[in-house]
Design a protein that fits this description.
By secondary structure, the protein is mostly helical. The chain is built from nine helices and four strands, in the order αααββββαααααα.
Length: 202
């Protein structure tokens, strides 16, 4: 029996992202909220694994004085050592541009400059820290237990409804098509459309 993967609904995605941007009763810096929002978008709109996310350097997202048009996950960053390139969505483009203005523009350190960090660009956030940020936001905004990989599941499931299977496989960086096929589960809307298609047209 095929495993049914949990995903977020569009409304849940909006609530989570809104909470990450503007958490209630929070005194932390607005730029901190924007960092967390951008990380969530990279998982929701680009399908980043959390282990890939924390390894991203800011030059992979912002290059030649502008946000990149596509993000390339390098072999050494990818879970299965397969390089892949994902086009950047409009809202992610805007978020990356703001990240540069709020975070990266002041980074002049030689060597590796990571995209997501707390105090120093050469000391990136850990996988555990990102997991905590997403899980805590989910508990408050959605009243349910979520984890970063759920955002990648959601990205994949949304793609399956509009793109051919080989394209989804490439965007997810899967070696085998069978890994991508687990995202072919139908939604209530898919089932409704299937039945509605049986109705005779006038």
């Amino acid at each position: 029996m095929k495993t049914q993967l949990l995903t977020l609904t569009p409304d849940e995605c909006d609530k989570l992202l809104s909470h990450l941007q503007h958490p209630p009763n929070n005194t932390a810096s607005p730029r901190l909220h924007h960092r967390n929002y951008t990380m969530a978008l990279l998982m929701l709109d680009a399908g980043c694994r959390v282990g890939e996310l924390v390894q991203l350097e800011h030059a992979q997202l912002y290059y030649l004085a502008a946000p990149v048009n596509a993000l390339t996950i390098l072999k050494h960053q990818a879970k299965n050592k397969r390089e892949r390139t994902i086009p950047i969505s409009d809202r992610l483009n805007v978020a990356i541009d703001k990240m540069n203005r709020q975070w990266w523009i002041t980074d002049h350190n030689p060597g590796t400059r990571y995209a997501f960090y707390a105090n120093h660009c050469q000391h990136p956030l850990t996988v555990r820290q990102v997991q905590y940020i997403i899980t805590a936001a989910g508990e408050i905004s959605l009243h349910r237990d979520i984890h970063p990989h759920l955002l990648r599941h959601t990205f994949a499931t949304r793609l399956m409804r509009s793109a051919p299977l080989p394209v989804v496989q490439e965007l997810l960086g899967h070696k085998n098509l069978s890994s991508t096929q687990i995202y072919t589960h139908p939604s209530d809307e898919d089932r409704r459309k299937a039945i509605d298609s049986l109705n005779p047209t006038k």
